[in-house]
């Protein structure tokens, strides 16, 4: 209970109004963007702040693409979400700020010390910490500020809508019913901890369960799969097993939380921290990295038809897919191409963000700029191709390489570190490179002069892949349709001195006699090259792979999958270790990196060409 002095102070402070003010979210990661979506779905203005532009852009796209999952109670035009890199403009008008930064006490304390300087005196300050009390986090703020602070612990909305509220030890008592009302309005289920408790309600119980699970693993009593199987059979059956859950959360985060529990409660560590540290040192942090964790990479990335839990697909990418427009009437084909956005599980309905494009084919994302870049082939026998760009939400469409500068652009690859993009030009028989904004255009490969004829399809450049660490770029020359004259080449990123695009001497032919190779991707980490082939069966309409040996040469060509319907696009999810491919039949496919685990979704929704991914 508050003292008489505290009661006197409370009367001087009034609850804020939510009218014409925002909910501020600090951190645009897995939870930050989901918390923002909850508030936005009920019509609250939401500002998300993260110093990482890519994270902010990813959060904005997640909310736009996945809002349907949150069952919004307002019309789309009432949903207001904005991203910021700077703190002050993001929170200066906020009535509520929720902190979602990594689970490190110093980081959280500093975040609230910074907040105290820029928010209004009535702003309520919540921390989403899953293990630290708001009393601990308030160590660097004034006593009056601590009275506006509390724990607001979310789980994984929209599937789990519980929010645990807990006092900082001095939180104004009227904040709790006020927040409960607004949380219920945003579709959440608020639960109040009646006294301070590390781990609140559920996490305190989960901490004990999790610790025993880790002891079982560290002592070699059972494997992760065996433990989860028994748990699932006994208690959950269709729920979230503990080892999958820890991978989804991240083993580095699990370790930090465990260390905090051990320190605060003076517990004996039976080897759990050392067990986790082995995974962390090897870079096996769980679902958020390409090395996996307790399970192999991509294990928790599920597609439609697979059993899913709320903790699956937290780190799955957003898909950007090109529809050529071939399913339209003949007179409309060259003006009905689209860019579509979908989800890696195939459950989010495809959404058109750009339309009325003349035969779009190649697509790539530039994360640092928050841009989509794509090529419009135009009419194939005319020199009217172009390269375009827009924001990740389809706004701000620009021509960056005008019609006629390139003949028939195909696959595009972006080197984000060098701010360069590369693309092939089919009938133009060229490979180009330029800056992300289209300036500095240069020809890297020239197989002929389209103006004097382009009938020799063995010279057509189609797919384009990059290997920056190797210092090479790769491209396909497909040859005649179903002609088995396709080839794959590579050359140095830097043209040899004294040579040009027509005379360079560093070109290697890696494979020849292929049915009809189209798009190509290079996995430098795994030392593999992947490509689609739309040629004749049995070798065509396939997904292919070749391995790079110690001498840098590619051998062991394998067909990973057959029976695609005019295979075109391909992209690699390097974090989750998956391959995504498209075909003209209008389907998206997902495979493991060795071709197993075939999944097919988004069927019969267009004539799909290029595909690109945006990490969540």
Strands, helices and their partners?
Layout: H1 4-10, E1 22-26, H2 30-41, E2 45-49, H3 53-66, E3 81-84, H4 87-91, E4 94-99, H5 105-118, E5 124-127, H6 134-137, H7 143-146, E6 149-154, E7 162-167, H8 175-185, E8 189-192, H9 202-218, H10 224-236, H11 242-249, H12 251-265, H13 272-281, E9 318-323, E10 337-343, E11 351-357, E12 360-366, E13 371-376, E14 385-391, E15 398-406, E16 409-415, E17 420-425, E18 430-435, E19 442-446, E20 461-467, E21 472-477, E22 486-492, E23 508-514, E24 517-523, E25 528-533, E26 542-548, E27 554-561, E28 567-573, E29 578-583, E30 587-592, E31 599-601, E32 608-614
Parallel strand pairs: 1-2, 1-4, 2-3, 4-5, 5-6, 7-8
Antiparallel strand pairs: 6-7, 9-10, 9-32, 10-11, 12-13, 13-14, 14-15, 16-17, 17-18, 18-19, 20-21, 21-22, 22-23, 24-25, 25-26, 26-27, 28-29, 29-30, 30-31
What does this structure look like?
InterPro entries: 3-OHacyl-CoA_DH_NAD-bd, 3HC_DH_C, 6-blade_b-propeller_TolB-like, 6-PGluconate_DH-like_C_sf, 6PGD_dom2, LDLR_classB_rpt, NAD(P)-bd_dom_sf. Keywords: Oxidoreductase. This is Dehydrogenase. There is one protein chain. The protein is an alpha+beta fold and about 625 residues long. Helices cover about 20% and strands about 30% of the residues. It has 13 helices and 32 strands. The strands form 7 sheets. Strands 3-2-1-4-5-6-7-8 form an 8-stranded mixed sheet, with helices on both faces. Strands 11-10-9-32 form a 4-stranded antiparallel sheet. Mean pLDDT is about 90; it is low at about 1-10.
């Amino acid at each position: 209970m508050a003292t008489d002095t505290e009661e006197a102070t409370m009367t001087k402070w009034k609850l804020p109004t939510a009218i014409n003010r925002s909910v501020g979210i600090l951190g645009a990661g897995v939870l930050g963007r989901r918390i923002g979506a909850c508030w936005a779905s009920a019509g609250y203005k939401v500002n998300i702040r993260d110093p990482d532009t890519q994270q902010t852009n990813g959060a904005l796209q997640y909310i736009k693409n996945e809002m349907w999952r949150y069952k919004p109670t307002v019309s789309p035009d009432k949903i207001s979400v904005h991203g910021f890199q700077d703190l002050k403009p993001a929170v200066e008008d906020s009535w509520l700020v929720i902190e979602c930064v990594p689970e490190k006490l110093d980081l959280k304390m500093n975040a609230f010390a910074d907040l105290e300087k820029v928010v209004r005196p009535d702003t309520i300050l919540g921390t989403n910490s899953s293990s630290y009390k708001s009393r601990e986090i308030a160590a660097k703020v004034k006593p009056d500020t601590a009275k506006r602070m509390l724990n607001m612990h979310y789980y994984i909305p929209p599937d789990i809508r519980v929010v645990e509220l807990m006092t900082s030890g001095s939180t104004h008592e009227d904040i709790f019913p006020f927040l409960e009302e607004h949380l219920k309005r945003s579709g959440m289920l608020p639960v109040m901890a009646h006294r301070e408790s590390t781990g609140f309600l559920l996490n305190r119980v989960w901490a004990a369960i999790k610790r025993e699970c880790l002891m079982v693993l560290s002592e070699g009593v059972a494997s992760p799969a065996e433990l989860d199987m028994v748990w699932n059979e006994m208690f959950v059956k269709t729920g979230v097993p503990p080892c999958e859950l820890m991978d989804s959360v991240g083993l580095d985060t699990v370790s930090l939380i465990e260390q905090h529990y051990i320190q605060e409660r003076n517990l004996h560590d039976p080897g759990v921290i050392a067990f986790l540290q082995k995974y962390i040192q090897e870079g096996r942090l769980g679902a958020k990295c390409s090395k996996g964790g307790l399970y192999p990479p991509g294990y928790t990335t599920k597609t439609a038809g697979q059993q899913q839990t709320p903790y699956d697909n937290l780190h799955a990418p957003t898909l950007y897919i090109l529809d050529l427009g071939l399913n339209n009437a003949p007179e409309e084909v060259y003006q009905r191409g689209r860019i579509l956005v979908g989800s890696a599980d195939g459950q989010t309905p495809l959404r058109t963000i750009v339309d009325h494009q003349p035969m779009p084919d190649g697509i790539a994302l530039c994360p640092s700029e928050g841009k989509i870049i794509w090529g419009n082939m135009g009419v194939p026998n005319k020199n009217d191709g172009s390269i375009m760009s827009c924001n990740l939400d389809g706004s701000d469409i620009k021509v960056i390489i005008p019609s006629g500068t390139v003949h028939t652009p195909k696959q595009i690859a972006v080197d984000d570190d060098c701010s360069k993009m590369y693309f092939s030009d089919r009938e133009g028989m060229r490979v180009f490179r330029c800056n992300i904004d289209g300036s500095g255009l240069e020809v890297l490969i020239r197989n002929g002069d389209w103006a004097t004829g382009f009938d020799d399809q063995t010279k057509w450049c189609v797919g384009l892949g990059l290997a920056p660490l190797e210092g090479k770029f790769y491209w396909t020359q497909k040859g005649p349709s179903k002609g088995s004259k396709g080839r794959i080449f590579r050359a140095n990123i830097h043209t040899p001195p004294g040579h040009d695009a027509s005379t360079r001497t560093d070109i290697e032919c890696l494979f020849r006699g292929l049915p009809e190779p189209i798009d190509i991707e290079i996995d430098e980490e795994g030392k593999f090259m992947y490509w689609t082939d739309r040629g004749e069966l049995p070798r065509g309409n396939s997904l292919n792979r070749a391995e790079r040996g110690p001498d840098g040469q590619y051998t062991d060509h394998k067909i990973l999958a057959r029976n695609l319907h005019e295979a075109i696009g391909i992209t690699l999810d390097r974090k989750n270790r998956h391959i995504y491919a498209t075909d003209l039949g209008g389907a998206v496919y997902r495979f493991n990196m060795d071709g197993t685990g075939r999944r097919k979704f988004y069927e019969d929704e267009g004539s799909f060409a290029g595909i690109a991914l945006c990490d969540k």
